[in-house]
């Protein structure tokens, strides 16, 4: 069975209350509704455990119309297997784990048969909340179809990178090993490896960090609006501002690092290590600086995933910088303005 | 809210966000028979204390006002299978029936406190007691719900 990812959800409202929320309606980042039911039994490692079941709008409506009971929803294959989370860790969102990571015996956690919406202590509010925000980029000047495509490609790569790194911060070693696997599978000799790597990051983080173009208004001036997770989009805006200010300095580091790889004959080759330690040391320092310069808060997440292969680490640092540089160029040219 | 003066038993939160009041708008002085789910055939005043009064930390996105209320269930004589069945039905939905198989029925008069029902169909009432209200003195009986 494929290992399921964890999922984040935000609170919409309580549906049943008795000395605290018993049943609550949540929503994950993709807008799927989640019913969360209190677990009264003790679960190791949880102060206040809840069983959470993603559900379709149709099934939720059937439940609210009292055509099915809560255990039917919880047992339904629609929406997938349940998750578990600790309400005491609820902030704006809560991180839910697949139930199978805690127990194989889900049956005893499923609410009793015969719980219908007649026992809801609160009226359904019909509020739709989402952790995704709309984020606009003002555009001006002339844009070709190729410009739009490049703009989105760079945005999507950077968004996937920052999302993945955000996700890694509180993830297990298995997830970190996952990044190592993605890096190790490519030879890093040419463009295919870089494209493949960013595509892999996007595919891994798509569930929790979706990115959609919600509006393109092509005029002079016009607007490109995307929907995504605020933190990742915020990182990209910061990156643009940092490059506005520090590009000359970072560009020197980029060229110096690229020069080291080139001179050692590893730039277009599949070697993972430098010929001499001194170069490795120098390249590591420059890569760290370059990544920190473009807003990667913890470059060790990437260097660790490269398993001390500094050539690979350097190439990834260069690739990240290039994407930031190309995206910021739209801003530098005056064809894109940040709105936040 | 009703016309009788209401002096709460415990200090209720003020300065709530979005212009909320405590007790909330729609709360009113209530009367009739109400049930507190309890785990045995006896009940003391402590069984009716709000989490706020018990000093429990509110980590559950519950409004501070509701945290200062006691959850009660309406004793509905008109329920098709009888009032015990209605309380049991709610106790199962609330996930507490495994532990709380008894209902302490109290008689509430308008001056005893203010109640709020979030939904007409549900029998749940959030109850803010008046200063002088003594649940033990108002106890009618304790019934088994099993």
Describe it for me?
The complex is a heterodimer of chains A (340) and B (146). Chain A is an alpha+beta fold. Chain A folds into 2 domains: 7-119, no CATH class; 132-338, no CATH class. Chain A has 9 helices and 10 strands. Chain A has a 6-stranded antiparallel beta barrel with strand order 1-2-3-4-5-6. In chain A, helix 3 (145-169) crosses helix 5 (191-205), helix 6 (230-263) runs antiparallel to helix 7 and helix 6 crosses helix 9. With 146 residues, chain B is an alpha+beta fold. Chain B is globular, with a radius of gyration of 15 Å. The termini of chain B are far apart. Classes of the chains: A alpha+beta (340), B alpha+beta (146). The interface between A and B is medium-sized, with 29 and 26 residues.
What is the percent of helical residues of chain B? Answer: 10-25%
Helix proportion of chain A: 40-55%
Average the pLDDT over all residues of chain B and give the rounded result. Answer: 90
Count of beta strands of chain A: 10
| The number of domains of chain B | 1
| Number of H- or I-type helical stretches of chain A | 9
Kindly estimate the percentage of residues of chain B that lie in beta strands according to DSSP.
Answer: 25-35%
């Amino acid at each position: 069975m494929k290992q399921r990812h964890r999922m984040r959800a935000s609170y919409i409202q309580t549906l049943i209350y008795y000395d605290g929320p018993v049943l609550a309606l949540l929503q994950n980042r993709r807008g799927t509704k989640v019913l969360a039911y209190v677990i009264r039994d003790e679960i190791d490692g949880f102060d206040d455990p809840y069983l959470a079941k993603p559900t379709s709008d149709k099934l939720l409506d059937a439940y609210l119309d009292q055509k099915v009971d809560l255990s039917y929803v919880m047992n339904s294959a629609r929406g997938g297997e349940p998750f578990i989370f600790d309400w005491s860790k609820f902030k704006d969102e809560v991180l839910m784990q697949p139930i199978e990571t805690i127990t194989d015996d889900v049956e005893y956690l499923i609410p009793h048969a015969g719980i219908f919406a007649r026992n809801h202590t609160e009226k359904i509010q019909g509020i739709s909340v989402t952790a995704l925000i709309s984020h606009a980029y003002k555009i001006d000047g002339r844009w070709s179809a190729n410009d739009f495509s490049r703009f989105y490609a760079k945005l999507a790569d950077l968004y996937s990178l920052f999302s993945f790194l955000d996700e890694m911060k509180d993830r297990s070693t298995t997830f970190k090993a996952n990044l190592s696997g993605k890096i190790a599978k490519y030879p890093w000799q040419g463009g295919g490896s870089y494209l493949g790597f960013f595509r892999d990051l996007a595919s891994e983080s798509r569930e929790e960090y979706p990115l959609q173009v919600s509006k393109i208004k092509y005029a002079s001036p016009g607007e490109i609006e995307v929907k995504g997770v605020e933190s990742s989009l915020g990182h990209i805006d910061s990156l643009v501002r940092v490059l506005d200010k520090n590009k000359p300095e970072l560009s020197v580091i980029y060229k110096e690092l690229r020069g080291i790889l080139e001179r050692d004959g590893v730039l277009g080759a599949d070697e993972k290590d430098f010929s001499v330690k001194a170069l490795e040391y120098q390249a590591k320092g420059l890569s760290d600086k370059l990544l920190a310069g473009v807003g990667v808060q913890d470059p060790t997440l990437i260097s660790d995933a490269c398993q001390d292969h500094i050539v690979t680490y350097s190439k990834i640092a260069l690739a990240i910088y290039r994407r930031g540089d190309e995206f910021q160029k739209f801003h530098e040219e005056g064809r894109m303005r940040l709105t936040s | 809210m009703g016309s009788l003066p209401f002096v709460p038993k415990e200090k209720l939160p003020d300065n709530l966000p979005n212009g909320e009041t405590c007790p909330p708008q729609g709360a009113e002085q209530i009367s009739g028979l109400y049930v507190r789910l309890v785990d045995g055939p006896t009940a003391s005043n402590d069984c009716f204390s709000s989490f706020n009064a018990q000093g429990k930390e509110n980590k559950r996105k519950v409004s501070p006002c509701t945290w200062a209320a006691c959850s009660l269930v309406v004793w509905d004589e008109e329920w098709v299978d009888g009032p015990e069945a209605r309380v049991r039905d709610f106790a199962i939905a609330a996930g507490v029936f495994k532990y709380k198989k008894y209902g302490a029925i109290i008689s509430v008069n308008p001056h005893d406190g203010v109640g709020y029902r979030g939904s007409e169909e549900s029998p749940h009432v959030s109850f803010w007691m008046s200063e002088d209200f003594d649940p033990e003195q108002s106890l009618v009986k304790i019934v088994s719900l099993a």
